[in-house]
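thread from #wetlab-drylab

HS: before we spend reagent money on co-crystallization trials with arginine, can we at least see a predicted complex? here's what I'd submit
DV: go for it
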Amino acid sequence: MSANQLDKKSEAWSALFSEPMSELVKRYTASVDFDQRLWRADIEGSLAHAAMLEAQQIISADDLAAIRRGLAQIRDEIEAGRFEWKLDLEDVHLNIEARLTQLVGDAGKRLHTGRSRNDQVATDVRLWLRDEIRSIGGLLSELQRALVEVADANADVILPGFTHLQVAQPVSFGHHLLAYVEMFARDAERMADVERRTNRLPLGAAALAGTSFPLDREQVARTLGMVDANGEPCICQNSLDAVSDRDFAIEFTAAASLCMVHVSRFSEELVLWMSQNFGFIDLADRFCTGSSIMPQKKNPDVPELARGKTGRVVGHLMGLLTLMKGQPLAYNKDNQEDKEPLFDTVDTLKDTLRIFCELVAGITVKREAMERAALRGYATATDLADYLVKKGLPFRDAHEVVAHAVKAAIGQGVDLSELPLATLQGFHASITDDVFEVLSLAGSLNARQVLGGTAPAQVRRQIERHRQRLG
Ligand code: ARG
């Protein structure tokens, strides 16, 4: 077969086929429109494979040199946008291999020795995803740092903490933001964990059973940086598993879904806080849009969209799980369908994290509105109960006493702290003048000095810890 004949996919396979594919089937089965995105990983994998073939004396030094030269030119062509992707050649792998053969002749045809597109594509996706996971890890650190900065500036700002979206107890706004830092820190841990299982080498599995060529899989793994923390090569240990499972992609999408769910919860709060009924924050204009009919509107589009895009990523997780569930061993073409959801998950997550790094830094905190809201809803009722406990009452009795006090305050339309001392003493004789400190928002916060509590001093300790951790 001449180099030029590789322009047709059917000729890249074998002479077995006696009729061409219809245009529809070609379009249906081709993946090059989207998997060309894997080109860099494909070339990297091929270079590592070729170097090993030469070291194992399976191909000659001249062949290796020709392959390197050809792949370097292909890289330049793709980078310059000059590479001609052909639907006829189905996918990124056949496109690059065909061009290589066109450029360097027989050496290009020897590259595929001991390799199949099945272990090749599994390797490409793993290499590509590994690098994306690393960049997502960087973005997660950046977002945490941005949140820590805003938390630091607002450690003393008080807003109502809610349970059931009913005013519960006052909390520090910094503390509230640090809750998200914890979530994103766990997301980063999950990503790092997924990376360990993604960064393993399928090459050598060939189509499904391994190969009769004496491949040095450890060398290839080392060349591709598929090594553990001790520098030991990480290799898929069963050829059937290596080419067929996409659990690493599913795990990644699960971790991405959780991360998006965290972003979505935060988004929901931003949307609520920005509404006129709360008025706790403002978002910079560049993250909002107006209305074509209502001139007064400023809508928090970015958090709303992030909340919406969470559905799309969770959908990809469902798609990938369903893609996998009925497949017999080993490789099946179904797996070609792993790419679009995976790519879209990466794009959506990265864009969302990037935007949120900026958006967080641009939040305007409306301190007075937050504190005013914290003064409504008897947020310090628990503090009064704790106060009575410290005076010797059993907690359940104290709870009951405070319920009566709150009922009276509601009747008079005032806060607990606005009831005269004599009235408060009417509920329990042990109440003295020092109760007003306890009933103040700042007093309530400062009382919560337990590790992980909302006292500003504790919040500052956590900020310090996060800063050390994030470097
Ligand atoms: N484009 C294919 C995929 O993404 C590559 C592997 C094709 N292997 C095969 N035996 N047809 O899965």
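DV: The radius of gyration is 31 Å.
HS: ok that's useful, forwarding to the group
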